[in-house]
Specification:
Low-confidence stretches: none
Helix content: 25-40%
Number of helices: 14
Number of strands: 23
CATH architecture of the largest domain: 2-Layer Sandwich
Largest sheet: 9 strands, mixed
CATH superfamily of the largest domain: Bira Bifunctional Protein, Domain 2
Number of domains: 2
Structural class: alpha+beta
Shape: globular
Radius of gyration: 24 Å
CATH topology of the largest domain: BirA Bifunctional Protein, domain 2
Mean pLDDT: 92
CATH class of the largest domain: Alpha Beta
RNA sequence: CGGGGCGUGGCGCAGCUUGGUAGCGCGACGGUUUUGGGUACCGUAGGUCGUAGGUUCGAAUCCUAUCGCCCCGACCA
């Protein structure tokens, strides 16, 4: 993309309503525009990152064998009356009447609807296990939306639902989700720690929340410092292998890690040596639940087992806060000049800064660099505006592309361009060809 | 919902106490400057002062109502 033809409304000054750094930076970088309390338009740059995150979630869910579908944002109230949650959910549910005065609601989650789909089409244990998911907009009429996309009322969430014949099968689905979530977050450049949590209105017995440590997090967390050394990394895993998945769960959840909801000071002190005890703040970016037959029983989601008996299926639901992740990533990765995108989610792979727009040699070098990067399958942003170098650097730093190639007449005289890491600030002079190869190598794992 | 604060060009703000017909910085636009980390100068455009009603010769300013936004708390991906 050429910046001169893009739509990137960056702000020099910080809008007064933004209190936390991710919100400020998203506004300043022209990623979002607030339309009402907790409701945002996604401008091109923000939309691009949102799509990259969605893509990672899709890939990792499907790698785990989970099947995508799409359910609507509006749901009939009757479905929720069946589960008893139409009344129970409270003011947070946005209720709507259509022209015929029928009761609808803007879905805050989809357990009822997915259960309805399941019960109308699945009747045999032979069709299990089954995990269906979608990535769809949700609406929860929060009392107090805040912090930009971190606590919006409308938000994009991946929610997945597993249907299994037995408790054991459902626990495997639970473990499988934990593994797939660990992989997803790591691909986004995040460390998200699974912590024992409370189930809230979804209900259920087993549940873990995934938290990204950040000063501005809304949850207080307590953990064993050893847990931050754990990485899923590049290991191979067979998602159908029950033992392998369980081993990962045990590895990542055996040490003490809890949110303030479930924190037990006595257990914390008993289990964790003092020098490893940490308390911090965290941003919740996902949660997995096992809730058994809580919905399948009242809603009649049953299958016939191998003995010919009709039994309710064991279910769980699993969510990733897709739109919230943008905020979480920025909270975890920024500096005083702006955002620092991890390679896995960056809106553009590299920025090209032409220091002297209109200089024949510089223009030509930038054009060929731009074309060559695209030929490698990369997505560069070429700042071809008639701006001073400082303004271009400031824009690039603000929007946070992890790599920048700086091209100017001085360097070109020596046959070099400059490749700069946004994260470290370190620059290296090298030929354009070498810079292209370097970037192709850096991004090879992410394409 | 309880407590606090704020609505004035795209953004950040001043003006309001003591009513007299709107101003500054940034940004935008047109020039000059050719500048290697938000350059400087000249010029231009852009505002029913959130909305409605009231008081007044006259309201951004005073009064009433209303809408919206932000912050702290209880709730949540």
């Amino acid at each position: 993309m050429r910046l001169s033809r893009y739509f990137l409304p960056v702000l020099k000054e910080t809008p007064s309503e933004a209190q936390i750094v991710s919100h400020r930076l998203m506004l300043r970088a022209g990623m979002i525009r607030q339309q009402a309390a907790g409701i945002y338009s996604w401008l091109p740059l923000g939309f691009k990152v949102l799509r990259r995150i969605e893509q990672i979630v899709h890939e990792e869910q499907q790698r785990a064998g989970h099947i995508p579908l799409l359910m609507p944002t509006l749901q009939p109230a009757d479905l929720w009356r069946e589960s008893g949650r139409y009344e129970a959910y409270g003011e947070e549910m946005l209720r709507i009447k259509d022209r015929h005065k029928r009761d609808l609601l803007y879905g805050p989650t989809n357990e009822e609807m997915i259960t309805d789909i399941f019960r109308s089409h699945v009747s045999s244990y032979k069709d299990l296990p089954l995990t269906l998911y979608h990535i769809q907009w949700k609406f929860r009429d929060e009392i107090r939306p805040r912090f930009g996309v971190m606590r919006g009322r409308e938000f994009l969430m991946k929610d997945g639902y597993n249907f299994d014949l037995t408790y054991e099968d459902a626990m495997h689905a639970y473990n499988r989700h934990l593994v797939s979530y660990l992989r997803s977050y790591e691909r986004m450049g995040l460390q998200a720690i699974p912590m024992r949590a409370e189930s809230g209105p979804i209900g259920g017995d087993d549940t873990h929340e995934f938290l990204v440590l950040a000063e501005t997090g809304e949850s207080e967390v307590f953990y064993d410092s050893e847990i931050t050394d754990l990485r899923f990394g590049e290991r191979e895993i067979d998602y159908d292998n029950v033992d392998q998945c369980r081993a990962v769960l045990e590895e990542f959840t055996s040490r003490y890690a809890r949110t303030d909801d479930t924190h037990d000071a006595a257990a914390f002190e008993a289990q964790v040596p003092e020098e490893r005890r940490r308390s911090a703040r965290g941003i919740e970016v996902g949660q997995i639940f096992y809730f058994g037959t809580k919905y399948s029983e009242p809603m009649g989601a049953t299958v016939v087992n191998d003995k010919g008996e009709r039994v309710p299926v064991h279910m769980g639901s699993h969510g990733i806060g897709v739109s919230r992740l943008l905020g979480a990533i920025i909270e975890a990765s920024h500096d005083e000049n702006g955002i620092i995108w991890p390679e896995g989610v960056t809106p553009f792979h590299a920025g090209i800064v032409n220091l002297k727009q209109g200089d024949a040699a510089a223009d030509a070098a930038c054009e060929s660099l731009y074309a060559a990067l695209k030929a490698k399958g990369l997505d560069p942003l070429y700042d071809d505006r008639e701006e001073r170098a400082g303004a271009k650097f400031a824009t690039m730093d603000l929007i946070g592309l992890p790599w920048r190639i700086t091209v100017g007449p001085r360097g070109l005289k020596n046959g070099v361009v400059e490749l700069t890491s946004r994260r470290t600030g370190e620059s290296e002079e090298l030929t354009a060809e070498a810079a292209i190869d370097r970037l192709a190598q850096i991004y090879a794992p992410h394409l």
